[in-house]
Amino acid sequence: MNIIVLDLEWNGSYSRRKKGYVNEIIEFGAVKCDENLVVQDTFSCFIKPQIAKKLSSIISDLTSITDEALIEGIPFMKAVSRFRKWAKNSVILTWGPSDVLALTENCHYFNGTRTVPFLKKYVDLQFFAEKRLGLSTSQQVGLGKAAELVGIHAENLEMHRALDDSLLALEILRKVYDSAELERFTTICDEEFYNRVTFKTSYICDLTNPAIDRKQLKFVCPKCGSASHKTSEWILKNKSFRAEFLCPTCGYVFAGRLIVKQKYEGISVNKKSFPIPIIEPPREALSAVVGNMNLSIAENGVGLLTFQNFFEGNAKHAFSTRIGGVSQNEFAAINLGFGRGDSDKNVKHNYNLFAEALGVPPESFVAGAQDHHTNIRRVTKENIGTGIWKPKDLESIDGLCTNELGVTLVIYCADCVPLYCYDEEHHAIGLAHAGWKGTAADMAGAMVQKMAAEFGSNPATLKVAIGPSISKDRFEVDLPVAQVFEELPNSAFFVTDTGDGKSHVDLWECNRQFLLSAGVKPENIKVGNVCTMKESDLVFSHRKTRGQRGSNAAVMALI
Fold it and tell me: What is the C-alpha radius of gyration for the chain, rounded to an integer number of angstroms?
């Protein structure tokens, strides 16, 4: 029997008939092999959209498929018919079940049936590969990551195109293939199969639901294992139930979290105990020296941290503090982050106060969507307001740079490292967000290179400041993270093994080493020496509060 590895691309299309979105398939790509995985043939075609006439910009950018290309496509059911004749009775493999779900959804929408005509026997290749590699299935492994794990380099393949993705999936299959094992993972596509595929897992968000076993609401002390007493009411947050508990035996106070899901197989319960976050009130509004930075209080009561006498010339900068502002509780008092639970009204008011304290127009702020990569974008006056007063259009951006007046760069950090970069000669600035992933990926060097490429900056004359973030003695990591840093050049300067399976990583020194390697002179690097965890009454710390916090902002502008 032949084996077919199938991949699909689709576009999220709004259907007026359905009054909802449909993942409308726009491309088929497949490779057919014999039982020895020798390629027999390939199949590839575009599908002419019938629901949405235009691709979303996200899908177009991700796949490089254009609306013009799809005009020459064929209707979905015609593609299904052609594929059925081509596939015959082959076993169909896809990377994860989402392609099968999309096929089922499209067949139901266009043909009124819940079955896929060519789907007789099926294997979830993602699940098969994870099992063969001995990986946990709690976090699904993507196609690209799986390729890395088995030593495949996919430079010559165009990711997120159907045929190339199917060919890459085949290469992964070859690395983990065993015909007898594959047969064990093969499923007959009967009614029970479709019931399972189309079942939508849901969260149970009502404690009175009879599906919840009341015994699951009891927690034992994570310290001594004794039964503990609930000391607060259950609250629902992010689809999970949370309450505080006290152990009568050892006196330990902790929080319990309960997530209940209705899956096809039945009720799934996830329980976790964790320390109660420490949320301190904001520090008193008094000017002071903190580490190697100055804390000053503006006339409107807003506190600013700055590197005094370092950025001489025409660069204005600051790191926000919790002093001043209108936010309350865990967001007190000057929270500059949207989407954390604080009201947008409060956040916007805080931005106006922050702009007044900094001496910049509030409309000049520009922010990107950070996701721990090393992507840096040059911004101009056309971008001002983005991410603050206007929706974000700077996706996957962890660094910003400019040489224009009237543009105030904004980066969010709450334990991650902000890097301030100033080129006085070319009158240009850069601001980067470097979490541990960005730090290890050399965000510092990426910013130096970007400044050189965009503005002709000479690394030897650049000035770079390393702002408030978590310090080495507070940044304890497990072995997998430690190994990432140990493999970096000069790791002896910033990684210390504690001898108990843990290590401490100095993100400040790691960034400094990367800056030196990029050509920045030692005397032109300033470390703020302000630890966000130690100074959590002054600035927000993600670790200290376990995510119950507002957002700090590092800002920089030319004047």
Answer: 27
